[in-house]
Amino acid sequence: MTDAIVPDTEHRGLVAALPRTLRNYALLARFDRPIGWWLLFWPCAWGVLLAGGAKTVFGARWDLILWLLAGAIAMRGAGCVYNDIVDADLDRQVARTAARPVASGALSKRAAWIWLLALCLVGLTVLLQLRWQAQLVALASLAPVAAYPFMKRITWWPQAWLGLVFSWGALVGWTELRGDGLGVLAALYAGSIAWVIGYDTIYALQDREDDALVGIGSSARAMGEHVRGGVATFYAAAVACWAFAFWLLRPDVLVFLALLPAAVHLAWQVLTLDPDDSANPLARFRSNRFAGLLVALACWVVGNA
């Protein structure tokens, strides 16, 4: 089990080339699966871009965007380490997660806690680059992050809680640049939450049988045979909220055109989703890194208008 690499790794060759000990730490932080930190980063970028952080190329806050990217990589890794420490017993009972370093015994919980602290130090470095208002917003995320691993034990909708957590970067990015426009920010944040619920429901399709055996909840299980319609509903809500945010910022019907590419992509995900195909849901889930980019471009256009 110590040499096992989880089935949905994206960089099997890169991870496999690392020495065994380093490989286990990389797997624990999910460095082999960059999709996670992309999905955490994109709302950060949306907040910055919609707040006008890139009005001009040379005056753009590229430094802020890069710091938030570094923070997303580190804190997504830290979140995964914490999740695996808490979920070690559950992970051993699920085929897809049984090979994770803590669950398999490849790394001790003590080693995992040390690695978690190291990643948090990187996050702290990023935090210190922000103004105090954004620092407070970022620190407020710690409580929902800490609670997330327990949500699958007490609710059928842990994806909704993940939406709160993975969308938090939008609040940080906007607050770093602006203290006004809270309605715009609220709509952007709500749209991101709906987007996260949609794509994480797709991801959860991989684990429906194992989750049922272990007795943990997920939106994929809750939706049952209506999962495609459920995902479509959340994606539609996401686009509607983003459109409302754009309208509040720039009341011009042309702003809706900026969202059209993202809306078409999300519709493609739903129309081509096959819940019963083992590979299809993972591919549709991963395609959300492109969806996040399309929304970022829309935020850049509207934020520059």
Could you describe the 3D structure shown?
This protein is mostly helical. The protein has one domain: Tetracycline Repressor, domain 2 (Orthogonal Bundle). The N and C termini lie far apart (54 Å). Helix content is 73%, strand content 0%. Helix 10 crosses helix 12, helix 12 runs antiparallel to helix 15 and helix 12 packs antiparallel against helix 17.
List keywords for this structure.
305 residues, mainly alpha, Tetracycline Repressor, domain 2
List the helices and strands and how they pair.
Blueprint: H1 12-17, H2 20-28, H3 35-50, H4 62-86, H5 88-91, H6 101-104, H7 109-127, H8 132-139, H9 142-154, H10 158-166, H11 168-177, H12 182-204, H13 208-214, H14 219-223, H15 227-249, H16 255-272, H17 280-286, H18 288-304
Structure summary:
This protein has 305 residues and is mainly alpha-helical. It has one domain (17-304): Orthogonal Bundle (Tetracycline Repressor, domain 2).
